[in-house]
Amino acid sequence: MNSIKDRIQQLGKALGRQHIPDNYTDYASLKMEYEALANRDVKQLQKESKKQRIQEIQGRSDLNSKWTFANLVEDSQDVIEAVSYARSFIAAHEDLSWRKSGAHMMIFYGDYGRGKSHTAGAIAHELIEKFEISVLYRQLSSLLDMRLFSYDFGANDNAGQKYREINQELLDVDLLILDEVCVNETILKKNAQSWLGNVLRQRLANHKNCILITNHNLVELENAIGRYCFESIKEYDTYKVKFSGPSRRKEIIPTQPESQAVRKTSGYQPNQVK
Fold it and tell me: Which residue intervals make up region (Disordered) (predicted)?
């Protein structure tokens, strides 16, 4: 069977034309070309749309932009192990059945400056980039302060409405990171224990994941947040990660005592009385 190009060639000859122009392209080729261009444009739009969605999630998360794996120095065994747990947790999100199977909680505990918040933030950034997981980072103390201010019914700053919106977001977000859990506190007040326990239980029921960050050890943590909260944590699939290496924060107080000679050369001495 003659192709459409051959038929046009024959028609051209019948009309006195001897050849088809060299730039002639048959319909099938044109269709393939335009489909390829359309697919390219769709992929570009999808890429731009995904980038915008990721930026919006990052904007709402309140994460430190420097908390990434690229900026995390794996200079001690505890951090190396923590990163291994973190990457396993991230990789598990590839399995949709795992995501829907239950609620998962990571507990990062250890002294100040050991990299707990940084590691949690790095997990969050990766989950946002790879899976568009919604994330909310909050310090527990700031939530408790906001909750307290919301009871001032005479205030004109809409604190109550803001707190209700935040509280709903605590329940809805895919990954909740609670930092500084019970920092500088021995025990949460009973009403705070009940509120936090209810948040954790509602998130558990909706298969929402959490990361808790604390300076307490696990025994102290149970006492600090109360039995009701701790029993809520037990219901999750929990991963406990201890940070015990050296502090990554800069020293302010010198490790070596300042010499008397240096002190004497200083021109200013505070609180001088003449």
Answer: 250-274
